[in-house]
Amino acid sequence: MNLTAILVLAAGTYAFRVAGPLLRDRLRLSDRVRDLMSTAATVMLFALVATSTLTKGQGFAGFALPAGVLVGAVAAWRRAPFVVVVVLAAATTALLRLAGVD
């Protein structure tokens, strides 16, 4: 990637990020639209987690990775510290892969 493309992408990213605070007072959204945007953000985040958990390359990621994510989700739901959540998820995935579960 050449320097021009990098600079154009950087400027576009910066402009996109600064547009929010600059347009906050000019744009009025109804409560329904705000609720829909909040729901859409949650759905998009869930879709990202689901695709990165269940797929690897072009195929299924196996059962070890989703099991690790599930253990991490349960630990987070039980309000475990973040480090504990990450270690539990990684350990679960690693132990299952060590045991031959792919």
From TrEMBL:
The entry's keywords: Membrane, Transmembrane, Transmembrane helix
Residues annotated as transmembrane: 6-24, 36-54, 60-77, 82-100
Pfam family, one: AzlD
Keyword Cell membrane: no
Keyword Transmembrane: yes
Stated name of the protein: AzlD domain-containing protein
The species this protein was found in: Saccharothrix xinjiangensis
Upper taxonomic lineage: Bacteria, Bacillati, Actinomycetota, Actinomycetes, Pseudonocardiales
